[in-house]
Design brief:
The protein is of the alpha/beta class and 180 residues long. It has a single domain, classed as Isochorismatase-like (Rossmann fold). It has eight helices and six strands; from the N terminus they run βαβααβαβαβαβαα. α1 runs antiparallel to α8, α5 packs parallel to α6 and α7 packs antiparallel against α8. It is globular.
Amino acid sequence: MRITKKNTIGLVIDIQERLFPVMWENEALLKNCKILIQGLQTLKLPLITTQQYTKGLGETHQDIKSVIDNFSFVEKRAFSCYDEPGVVDKLNETDAKNIIICGIESHVCVLQTAVDLKAAGLNPVVVIDCVSSRAKENIELAKERFRHEEILTTSYESVLFELTRSSGAAEFRAISGLVK
């Protein structure tokens, strides 16, 4: 399956103030997610951001908020974003088929969302260097489950260049600058 800009959207899952500090290699996660988000916006792809139980887990991390144009979020309590009507409505509004996913935690909200999106006939694309969990072992278990469920995984650099398609694209220089 080739990932193109048409019918593609980004989904930023629960990168929140109180959850972020306990993530495995959280500084690399933050750096990578910011690059991915900036790249998706450079390519003019819509974004959906979720927050899991904001009252308990806090707001979206300030560094993530700061790179999202016109930041807004969908509040959720279910682990799967696809169980949240506000997310489903936004997906339907954009006619999205390919959902590029970053966020936390790999083995809970990210995994359940990806499985549900696939079951709904959509194409979840988990950007594996833009997801994390508290324990490295849970990240590995999530990767194994993604493979078992035949859910596509990729890196932020790979997906951004695939979406850009050509060094002749108007966005190439900006994307190239982000990933270097």
